[in-house]
Amino acid sequence: MTETIIFYMLTAVILLSALGVVLLPGLMHSALCLGLCLAGVAGIFASLGSDFVFAAQILVYVGGIAVLILFVVLLAGSASDKIVRQVNDQWLPSLLICAAFFWAFLKITGYFSGIPAAAAPSPSVRAIAALMLGDYAVPFELISVVLLASMTGAVLFGRRKAQ
Amino acid sequence: MTLSYYLALSGLLFTIGLFGVLTRRNVIGILMSIELMLNAANINFVAFNRFLYPGQYAGQLNAIFIITLAAAEVVVGLALVMAIYKNIKSVYVEDYNILKG
Amino acid sequence: MLEYVYILPLLSFAVAGLILAFGRWLPLKGASAGILVAAWGFSQGLMLFVKAIQGTITLPYEMSIPWFSFGGNQATLGVYVDGLTIAMLIVVTAVSLLVQIYSTGYMHGDPRFKRFYCYLSLFTASMLGVTLTNNMMVFFMCWELVGVCSYLLIGFWFEKQSAAYAGKKAFITTKLGDLGFLVGLMVLFYATGTFEISKIQELAHAGMIPAAAAGAAGILMFLGAAGKSAQFPLFIWLPDAMEGPSPVSALIHAATMVAAGVYMVARLYAVYALSPIAMDTVAWTGAITAFMAASLALTCFDLKRVLAFSTVSQLGYMMMALGVGGFTAGMFHLTTHAYFKALLFLAAGSVIHAVHTNDMREMGGLRHKMPITYITFLLGTLALCGIPPFAGYFSKDEVLAAALARNPVLFAIGAMAAAMTAFYMARALVMTFHGKPKDAHKHDHAHESPAVMTGPLILLGAVSVVSGFVLTRHEMFEHLVNFEGALPFELHHVNHSAVALFSSIVAALSMSLGVWLYKARPDIPAACRETFSPIVNMLEKRYWLDAFFLKLVDIGDSLSRFMFSFDFNFLDQIAIDGWAWLTLKLSKIQGWLDDHVVDAALNATGTITMSAGRMARLAQTGLVQNYLLFVAIAVSIFAAIAFAG
User: Is the distance from CB of C131 to CB of C125 less than 8 angstroms?
Assistant: First the structure.
């Protein structure tokens, strides 16, 4: 029962804040909503018993990405954002397409209806660590290479051009 | 709580994100919408892992990878946005049309 | 020395070039070089002659180098020397030498003196080529070169219209004959497969040439000889060739070039001997020529033309001799005739040099003014008329004896020609040197020629007197140019001395008659001219042969004119212009089609492509979100398909 209440609360938070991200005219507000939304998702992870993913979500998304976006909004945003229309001309077809997508998702959801959780969640950090350094060692290392490359690229883009 | 609830949540979140990607004029807004979609995918991974493959952790591991890649994507994307903003002085994607013939 | 005989023509060619290029700086403007080479050549010829008589060299001698090959045949360059060659070699070099010496006086002060000697050297070289070559191809080439030299020298004073015309006439007429020569050469090559004289002779002796082929080749090649040696009916060019300088007349148109035709027939005698028809053609043509030319000389007043007709007549004799099988007689007459006819021409040149006219009616009484010229001319006349013991007596008698042995009719014609020869020569002698001067002014200015001119005259006079006598001693000439080929018929043995006696008496009588008529009773010939005016007219018109050839040319002209009008009026106007008109119309239609169909199709393609592109461009908005929308639509469509499936 508690689980259900928590789920609906988190769902409400996630969906509302997501709508805020998409619909609010001010970028600042959008970014704040994004942080809230990501935190809600983290809650969902926690409710699903994935402790390590929950931690990573809080650390990377809420603590890193959301804050980073916030900084960029501070740098690139302007006061006129609130006056200028933030939605483009193709919102109506987009809405229809999105409706179609949602219908499709619901259809897929229907296939998986009525599957209960088999067992209570258990801590998974140790197992994930074993996987990361075991079977998935190569993708893990590749991810690190990707991170290094993206960091280098970011530094290169952000650098002031040599006069 | 069954799997379908989580899948429905994920679907809604993805659809909202998609709508944002398709309609927001602000490029930073688009990036944020993409994050929403990635999170919807993550929810799916973790939920499937929880309900269909208990005792296995590959789904969670994928979620970890996606989070990492999302971080990298955001870093590069924002750096690009800043670089473009420095040149074009605009954050609206309609203005990013210098390649249009 | 026999090995080096090939140098003779080559050296003469070289000297011709040398005179042309550097004649200005050579002594005597290049004449010295030409004379030296001719003298050397003559000495060589004389040495060869002596050795051949002594028998210290083996004849025939042949030497050749490969030239080029065609098909499976090998053409060669080389020399072929036998007794005939040596006889001809001496004639050519001796007359050439004397004429070149004589010309230093005759042509003195001429503006084109250098060129004259260049031509003379070139002529000598070509003639030596004709004489020495071992190959009918080279023979033909040199033969043509000789013709070119003749053309150049006849028209040497080309400022004179008549000289230019005479040169052209000579060239074209001989060319007409050369056409036959060329075809005959081809027939001969077809029959024998070779151009080499020695091989042709071998094949002919072995009887490997069919009589028909030999006859065809012989008659066709005789056409060339008729052109070159001025035989009937192609002799019309020779009298006009007298427009050239007198030394040229002596060298080319009396002694050497005109003898080339005779020489050619003699060279290929083995081929002629195979075909009685060819032999008869040669004999009868020669006889007719001898008679006609002699008759033509009777009425002529131009001194050089009288001599020219005489030359034609004597060439006819030679041909007749060859035709009746008197090979040795013909060649002997060629040799002696070369000397005394050259002498006569040079003497005539000396006279003309003195009085500046060719017309005998303006001469007369020059005997005392020009004693040396007179004496030498007299010697030449006696030689030509066949009065013993001069050269002509021996050779002409042999010719007549050979004719009698073969056919009495030919003998009769020959005898009549001989009588006429004696008559017209007497007439020329008397009209020129005897009697009263008819033109006092010209007579007063006449004078004896310089030593360079009289020297050769005296030499030739001496040769004319003795050559017949010397060469018949121990049958020297017969040993040299005997022909051991089998004749197709038997020659009857005739009483040689009887013929000699008969012809001598005829000649002497005829000559006396001429001298008497023109010296004592010049009114009788004048009366005869009146009485027999139709005949005289015919002779002055040269049996209308000139008119005949002109008519031929006229017919050719009108044929071409008709062809031209056909070409112009029909082919040009209707066929070609009509075709052009049709083409123009078709092009216009095609142009319209091109503009309105082909181009329109092309333009339409372009337009369609452009509008399609414009439409396609609408999709390319350049907006990222647009594209994403399309992606989303596509994905949803695929999803719909997946679900429907």
Answer: no
Q: What is the pLDDT along chain A (163 residues), one digit of tens a residue?
A: 888 899 999 999 999 999 999 988 888 889 999 999 999 999 999 988 888 999 999 999 888 899 989 888 888 777 777 777 888 888 888 999 999 889 888 888 888 888 887 777 778 888 889 998 988 999 999 999 999 999 898 888 877 665 5
* Three-state DSSP state, C234: coil
Q: Does C620 touch chain B (CB under 8 A)?
A: yes
Per-residue pLDDT tens digits for C551-599: 888 888 899 888 888 888 887 778 788 888 899 999 999 999 988 888 8
Check which CATH number belongs to the domain holding A2 and give it.
Answer: 1.20.120.1200
C59/C28 Cα distance (integer angstroms) = 39
Residues C331-336 have a mean pLDDT of 86
The answer to whether B97 contacts C617, with C-beta atoms less than 8 Å apart, is no
> Which bin fits C160, alpha (ψ -120 to 50), beta or left (φ > 0)?
beta
pLDDT in tens, C615-638: 888 877 777 888 888 898 998 888
d(CA A8, CA A5): 5
Q: Which residues of chain A does C625 touch, with a Cβ-Cβ cutoff of 8 Å?
A: 88, 90
Spatial neighbors of C173 by CB under 8 A, at least 6 apart, are: C227, C234, C236, C237, C549
ipTM > 0.95 for the complex: no
Q: Do B76 and A21 touch (CB under 8 A)?
A: no
Asked if A57 and A128 sit in the same domain, the reply is no
A78 shares its domain with A9? yes
Per DSSP, C366 falls in state T
Residues A76 and A128 in one domain: no
Q: Which residue of A65, A68, A109 is in closest CB contact with B11?
A: A109
Domain extent at residue A130 = 124-158
Within the 23-82 window of chain A, which residues sit less than 8 Å (CB to CB) from chain C?
Answer: none
CATH architecture of B3-92: Orthogonal Bundle (1.10)
Query: How far, in Å, CA of C462 to CA of C351, rounded?
Result: 19
In a domain, A133, yes or no: yes
A116 belongs to a structural domain? no
**Residue C622 forms contact with B (CB below 8 Å):** yes
Half-sphere exposure of C588 (CA within 13 A, CB side): 5
Is C625 close to B100, i.e. CB distance below 8 A?
Answer: no
The reply to whether residue B81 touches residue A76, judged by beta carbons under 8 angstroms, is yes
Domain count, chain A: 2
Domain boundary among A38, A64, A86: A86
Nearest to C253 by CA among C342, C348, C125: C342
**DSSP 8-state symbol, B92:** B
Same domain, A60 and A7: yes
Closest partner CB to C633 (pick from A88, A97, A104): A97
User: Is there a domain that residue A163 lies in?
Assistant: no
Rounded-to-integer distance, Cα B15 and Cα B7, Å: 12
The answer to whether residues A77 and A8 belong to one domain is yes
Choose the final residue of a domain: A37, A69, A86: A86
